[in-house]
Design a protein that fits this description.
- There is one protein chain.
- The protein has one domain.
- By secondary structure, it is mainly α.
Length: 39
């Protein structure tokens, strides 16, 4: 859910700098999910 929501945010907002921030947040979110065993 978390990654999917962030990906949608990226698709809605085009500025490259914002996309980098969102993609970085996705990595953190994914790491947290893996740590919790939820992938």
């Amino acid at each position: 859910g978390c990654v999917r929501n962030l990906a949608f945010t990226v698709s809605e907002k085009q500025p490259a700098s914002l996309m980098r921030i969102e993609l970085h947040t996705i990595k953190i979110c994914h790491f947290a999910a893996v740590t919790n065993g939820l992938d």
